[in-house]
Specification:
Helices cover 80% and strands 0% of the residues. The longest helix is centred in the last third of the chain and has 28 residues, at 187-214. The chain is globular. The protein has helices at 3-9, 15-33, 37-58, 72-97, 103-129, 138-160, 164-183, 187-214.
Length: 215
């Protein structure tokens, strides 16, 4: 039996030592569940920058076509990228909390799976009602619904872990999405591309740099 194993088995001799050991264990757990902020935000930033960018180029304001491409291509690319980002977010959350036992592990697993399940469900629903929507609103409904779902899930994550930046990001996405919907087809895609997609890329970089400066 090694000396370190024996020492860990013995109760600490005084309260100060006990507090020190508790703090060390807490710090070790936090290091294990800490995830690079870019893994949370950059997949979504790329998905929205590319997906909504294609939507704007194909379905510009007042029906203008900036780049001629198949009508189905921008929507398919956007949905595929968002599904991929949701799966990536789910796996990132599950991996982060997979080493932690108890309530935190269950929260991480549940939150991770909620991304994939929610986006898969929304896609099935939108496919079902797509033909009943006016043609000029189909793209807007698809993109706005996916963006609203993303904003809600980010706010939920912020509420679960009392993570203010994550909650604020969900609020930002929701506000930008509403502004885009009010602006109308074409403009909504441009607003989401620049402010939501570009904003998430910038937010991830800033959060990563800020965290690095504190370590």
């Amino acid at each position: 039996m090694s000396e370190s194993f024996v020492d860990n088995d013995q109760p600490p001799g005084d309260p100060a030592e006990a507090l020190r050991l508790i703090e060390e264990q807490r710090a070790a757990v936090l290091r294990r569940i800490q995830v690079d902020d870019r893994l949370w935000y950059w997949p979504w930033g790329v998905a929205w920058l590319v997906g909504f960018g294609l939507l704007f180029l194909r379905y510009g304001p007042d029906g203008r076509v900036f780049v001629d491409m198949p009508e189905w291509l921008p929507v398919v690319v956007l949905v595929a990228l968002m599904l991929g980002a949701s799966v990536f977010s789910g796996l990132t959350g599950a991996k982060a909390y997979g080493h932690v036992a108890g309530e935190s592990a269950r929260r991480g697993a549940y939150y991770g799976w909620s991304w994939s399940i929610a986006f898969t469900s929304a896609t099935v629903i939108l496919v079902k009602v797509n033909d009943a929507l006016p043609e000029d609103l189909r793209t807007l409904v698809w993109s706005a619904t996916m963006a609203a779902l993303t904003g809600a899930l980010h706010m939920a994550g912020g509420a679960i872990w009392l993570n203010r930046p994550l909650f604020q990001l969900g609020v930002w996405i929701s506000v930008v999405n509403v502004a885009g919907v009010l602006a109308g087809p074409g403009w909504q895609a441009l607003i989401m591309c620049v402010l939501a997609g570009g904003g998430m890329l910038a937010f991830g970089a800033i959060a990563h740099r800020w965290r690095g400066s504190r370590t």
